[in-house]
């Protein structure tokens, strides 16, 4: 079964202008980021790719935990992308996901271990990660703790 997604974009001017995108639940202004010599209004392709990779990873991880009968007290994610600019060529080099999975205080060692394995497995299972595989280095650095405990 195929699922089509559609996006409409409008660009108003030259390189340092801005535009808009509308893709259903995503409606925003777009431009080149300030760090890359643009106006920095709205979002940009670099943030959107990071957002796609992070949300796909997080949803995949949540589903995998659920299927394994692991219910975290808290599931959060911080992700970071690195874009290299050499000789005016922009290369999206790497994305690092740092999920934090907080399991109930009475979680077993087996649950802690399984949660860590799933945190890594979710990266390989995520549709967006698979789409950019071979072009963007993907890394996962999970932190698995129990409620009231320090990081493991």
Notes on the structure:
By secondary structure, the protein is of the alpha/beta class. The protein folds into two domains: 1-43, N-terminal domain of TfIIb, CATH 2.20.25; 44-146, K homology (KH) domain (GMP Synthetase, Chain A, domain 3), CATH 3.30.300.20. 30% of the residues lie in helices and 34% in strands. It has helices at residues 45-67, 109-125, 127-132; strands at residues 8-12, 18-23, 26-30, 74-86, 89-103, 137-140, 143-146. The strands form two sheets. Strands 4, 5, 6 and 7 form a four-stranded mixed β-sheet that branches. The protein has a three-stranded antiparallel β-sheet with strand order 1-2-3, with no helix packed on it. A hairpin with a 2-residue loop joins strand 4 and strand 5 (89-103). The relative contact order is 0.14.
Please name the defining characteristics of this protein:
152 residues, alpha/beta, N-terminal domain of TfIIb, GMP Synthetase, Chain A, domain 3, 2 domains, four-stranded mixed beta sheet, 3 helices, 34% strand, elongated
In short:
The chain is of the alpha/beta class and 152 residues long. 30% of the residues lie in helices and 34% in strands. The strands form two sheets. Strands 4, 5, 6 and 7 form a four-stranded mixed β-sheet that branches. Strands 1-2-3 form a three-stranded antiparallel β-sheet, with no helix packed on it.
């Amino acid at each position: 079964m195929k699922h089509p997604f559609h996006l409409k974009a409008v660009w108003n001017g030259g390189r340092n202008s801005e535009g808009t995108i509308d893709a259903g639940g995503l409606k925003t202004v777009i431009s080149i980021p300030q760090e890359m010599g643009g106006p920095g209004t709205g979002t940009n392709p670099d943030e959107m790719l990071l957002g796609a990779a992070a949300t796909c990873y997080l949803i995949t991880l949540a589903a995998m935990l659920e299927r394994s009968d692991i219910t975290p007290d808290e599931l959060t994610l911080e992700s970071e992308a690195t874009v290299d600019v050499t000789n005016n060529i922009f290369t999206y080099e790497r994305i690092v996901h740092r999920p934090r999975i907080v399991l109930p205080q009475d979680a077993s060692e087996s649950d802690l271990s399984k949660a860590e394995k799933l945190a890594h497995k979710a990266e390989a299972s995520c549709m967006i990660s698979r789409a950019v595989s071979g072009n963007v280095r993907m890394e996962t650095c999970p932190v698995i703790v129990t409620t009231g405990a320090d990081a493991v």
